């Protein structure tokens, strides 16, 4: 896919972290970018900075996502690229000791349901609404491509840590969806891939640094090479390559400095 001002893109979670870096890289390349985010003030400000469009979107609400796509398409035309970074997740250990009661408790099923909705179901929702729009678009280039969908999974989907049953399970469901979805959409010329980032300097990790710099430094040292956390710009660089290289399809690509964390 050519990356220029004829291409429109949607980036969910685009007001911060990996989504923000992806939206910035796309805008720098001349792409028309729609920033989907629940955070209205931050999203509006960032969209203005990059010359894009902000759409307030709750990825757990079908009508909200559909309205966001409608607004983006009215302004920029049919998106050819979707980068889905937004998520809503629950968490906790399967069974843990409760100091209040002096006994054991299990993580509520609601936490699993929250992660399933905010990670897996939301990813399907965004991807399928995008694919429906792309299906009616004119093919591009020699391969007849109509669009590409880039989902965000996690290294935790393959080697999740203690307390990541909900998160790792939700991200693992994305992994299982990528290949069959790519095959579902192959006759339409729509590609589907997922990036599995390791530990990146996103807002949650910067919060860890603020609370305990030693823990933050330890996470960086646990990465084989380079011995640091990933930069959001490095995630965004892979997004651009997945756009350019049409032969990437149905793939799960780890971006993690070779980290394989033992349980702690």
TrEMBL record:
Swiss-Prot/TrEMBL keywords: Oxidoreductase
Protein name, as recorded: SDR family oxidoreductase
One Pfam family cited in the UniProt record for this chain: adh_short_C2
PROSITE patterns found in the cross-reference section: ADH_SHORT
